[in-house]
Specification:
188 residues; alpha+beta; Aminopeptidase; 2 domains; seven-stranded mixed β-sheet; two-stranded antiparallel sheet; 6 helices; 9 strands; elongated
């Protein structure tokens, strides 16, 4: 009987070890996936790519003609038109085969409010879910920072961006003929 109990415990330990290994591998895979595909902005790798996206998509990315993408990338901050500091910007880049294909920039606007400032994906990679992944990453990160609501502004005519935001659960906060601002309350 003692031999049977010993075999039973070995069997249980083996099952528990196997389950732990499967769960650990799954968690590690998700961590590696995000870390390998969505990474912090790295100027030597990403600066020119983002500047090119701004140049090609200026109308869609900003309504502020005074904006300097170079300054934003060099300082990772937004400033008011009077030059005063506005916010520390978090810039994340989506990589495919170690090449940037899109980026998102966001910040904590107030104690519990986050703001997505920019989102862009290179033309040849659009329609493949990369914008959705970048938005979800930003939402998760802002949630970790304690934000309970997130806002984003886009042009009324930017139907692609609007579809991404609406699918992510954003609701219209206000709009006019030219712009629409969305808000999403995060669930805890």
């Amino acid at each position: 009987m003692t031999q049977t109990k010993a075999n039973y415990f070995k069997y249980i330990i083996t099952i528990l070890f196997t389950l732990s290994a499967i769960i650990g591998t799954t968690i590690l895979y998700k961590k590696i996936y995000y870390e390998n595909n969505i990474q912090n902005y790295k100027p030597t790798r990403d600066r020119q790519f983002i500047l090119d996206l701004f140049k090609k998509n200026w109308y869609w990315l900003t309504a502020n003609d005074q904006l300097s993408p170079e300054n934003i990338l060099d300082t990772s901050s937004l400033t008011h038109t009077d030059g005063s500091h506005k916010a520390n910007l978090i810039i994340k880049v989506y990589l495919e085969t170690n090449q940037p294909i899109g980026f998102i920039a966001y910040y904590k606007k107030q104690l519990y409010q986050g703001y997505i400032q920019f989102l862009a994906v290179d033309d040849q990679y659009r329609g493949k879910g990369y914008a959705k992944k970048l938005v979800q990453y930003a939402l998760d990160d802002l949630k970790r920072m304690g934000c309970i609501s997130i806002q984003i502004l886009t042009r009324m005519s930017n139907s692609s961006a609007r579809a991404v935001y609406e699918k992510a659960g954003f609701k219209e906060l206000w709009s006019n003929k030219e712009f629409i601002e969305y808000k999403k309350d995060l669930e805890y």
